[in-house]
Model the fold of this input.
Amino acid sequence: MAVNSLGLNKAPSETRVVVAMSGGVDSSVVAALMHEQGYDVVGLTMQLYDHGEALMKKGACCAGQDIYDARRVADQLGFPHYVLDYESRFKDDVIDDFADSYLRGETPIPCIRCNQTVKFRDMLATAEELEGDVLVTGHYVQRIEGPQGSELHRAVDPGKDQSYFLFATTQNQLDRLRFPLGGQSKEETRRQAERIGLAVADKPDSQDICFVPDGDYAGLVGRLRPGALVPGDIVDLEGQVVGPHNGIVNYTIGQRRGLNIGGSAEPLYVVRLEPKLNRVVVGPKSALARSLVYVKELNWLGAPLSADEPGQEVRVKLRSAQAPQNAFIRALSEQHRDRAVIELLEPAFGIAPGQAAVVYDGERVLGGGWIEGAEQMA
Amino acid sequence: MSHYLDHNATTHIRPEVIARMSDVMGQVGNASALHSFGRRAKALVEAAREQVAALVGAPRPQDVIFTGSGSEANNMAAFAVPGFAYRPSAVEHAAALQARADALPLPVDARGQLSINDEDLSQAIVACQLANNETGILQDLSGLAATVGYLHVDAVQAAGKIPVDMPSLAADSLALSAHKFGGPQGVGALVIRPGLDMPAMIHGGGQERRRRAGTENVAGIVGFGLAAELALRDLDSYARHTQDLRDRFEAGLPQGIEIVGRDQARLPNTSCILVAGKSASILLMKADLAGLAISSGSACSSGKVTQSHVLAALGIAPERAGTALRISFGRNSTHEDVEAALSFLHRALGG
Done:
C-alpha cells in the first residue's frame, strides 16, 4: 500500500478527511481537492457568533453568508457538511478574551486565539469523534515530516504565509493536521477554484476580524464591557497632559495617526498604555525602541529551549506584517519554561503586548508566545 | 444502506399521491378561470377540500382554507381576531410561537400540558398543538375552548397519525400540513369554525373566498386531499405499525437512555430520547455518516442545532436537553430500521 497524498498509509477512499470549511475560496478549494483525490471528505463549518447580532440587525439570520457558501460547495461536490455551534465557546475563549485584552492595554489578535482554541482544540476533537484521520484546513502554511516528527514551515507563497497566526499549534495537533495549500500560491488556488467551477471562486479574501464586520473594535469592546470607553488624558513622557483621549481601547503602541496633538517638533507616537491610570503615554519614536521582549504561554515545536544566556539564535516576528528579525531566545528560567526572553539584535519599535512573537529557524516555525512586555536594554 | 427515521420532519409521499399529482400536473387550468379548463381545476380543488375536511371531522368543506404550509396556517390564526392578545403554549412550533412579535407564551407543566391557572384568557387567541413535534406528547385540550377567547389548534403533527375531530375540540381553527402524512410539501390548510370571519394575510385575489390570495396549487391540493383520504382510512394500521416499531425501539435501548414522556399519551410513531453524556449534534453527524437519518430539537436553516425550547419548557436542563435525539417512524419503516437505530446507539455508547 502506497502512502497517500496526506502521508497516511491508506487508500484515499479509506481515509476520512475532515475539512474545516470557512466558506471562503481557500478552504473550499482544499475540500474540493481532497474530494477529487478520492478521500472520504466531511466538511465542518463553525458557527462562531450570531451574525445578525454582530451586524446589529434585528431579525437577521444567525448564520452568515459564509455558512451557506460552505454548504453550497459541499452540496455541489456531494459530500456531507455539518455546522458546529461554537457560539458559546467562541464567546468565552475569543470574544471575551479580546475585550479583556484591550482593557489591559494590549492589542490582541483574536484570530490566533481562535486557531488555538475553537479551531484546533475543539474542532480537532470533533473531527476525531467523527472518526476523521486528519483535519485539513485552507491555511497557507506547510507541515513537513522531519527527522523528529512533523514540523511547521512557512508557506511557499511569502505573500500569503499564515504561519504567524498558527504559532500556537501544538506538536500533538500538528500531527493530526494537514495544510495542502501551503505548497502553492494564491493564484494557483484561484485557478483551481475556477477549474472545479466553485461558486466562491471570485469571493474576496476576508479582511476584518470576523466578529467585527464593521471594523469598529472599540465600539464592540464598549458594548461588551460598559465603561471601557472612559475618556482620559494623553500625557508625554514627563507626565504632562498634552491632550484628551476617548478611551485607551482606541490606541495601540506605535500608533502615530489620530492622536490630534499639535505643537510638538517631532512626531509623537503612542509609547505606552496605562489602563489603571486610564492614560495614553506618547513620546518620540526613539522612546519606542525595545530590545528585550518577554513572552508567555510559549508553544515550542523545536528542540527544547535552554535558559542559559544568550540562548538560541533565531529570527522572530513581532507583528504579523513585519519582517522577521535576528534575535536570541531563551527560556525565562528552568522553572518557567512556558515563558521566554527574546533578545533582539537590533531594537524594534512599536512592540505591543497582546501581539504574538513568533520564532523561526529559516522557514521553520520553532514556536512562539504572547508578548507580555518589552524593555530597552540598559 | 440508509435508514430514514425522521418522519416527523417529513415523510414519503404515498405512491398513489404521486401518480395522481403527476396526472393533474399534466393538465392546464387556473382554478379561477371560467372556461372548461378552469372549471376542471376548480373541481379538483373542491374535491380535495372535502377530503381534507373529512380528515378532521369539519362539517363544512368551505371552512378549509388552503395555504402554502402549516406554518402559514399557524400565522394566519395568530391574527384571527383583531384586538385579541396572542398566547401560544411554550411548546408550540416556532411557526406558532413566533407568529406575532407580541406573543406571550403560556407555560406548560413538566408533563408538557398547558397550565393556565387563573389567567383570564377571554380576550386571547390561545394556540396549542395537539401533538408535539419533538416529543410526540399529546395535549389534553378538553374543556380548553370554553375558557379562552379563541382556540387555535396546531394539528400539523397529529393529523393523519391519530384521530382528530375538530367539533369535539371546539376549536376555532386548526392548522394542517400535507407532507406530514404522505402528501406533498408546500401545501397546508387552516380549517376554521363555521361562520368565523378570517382576515386574509395575502391580498390581491379572490381565491379561497378572499381569505388567501394566489393561484391555487392545484396539484399540491389534490395530493393533499388524496393523502388525507388515505391517512384517514389507514389510521388504525398506521398506529399499529409505527407503535410496534417505536415500542421495539424503546425496549431495545441501551441502559442509561431516558425516554421523554414515556408514561404519557404520545404519538405512536415518535420517540424522544436523552442520551446522557453525549452531544446530540455530534450523534446526529455520526448517525448521518452511518446512513441513519434522525434529528434533534429544532434545526436552524443553516443546519446549526439549537437548544430545544420544547425540552426547556418541560424543565429539562440545557445539559440534558443537549443530548436529545428524536426518532420518528413512518408507514414505510421496518424492523431493519429499528435494528439499525439500536445498533448505532449501542455503538455510540460503547456497548
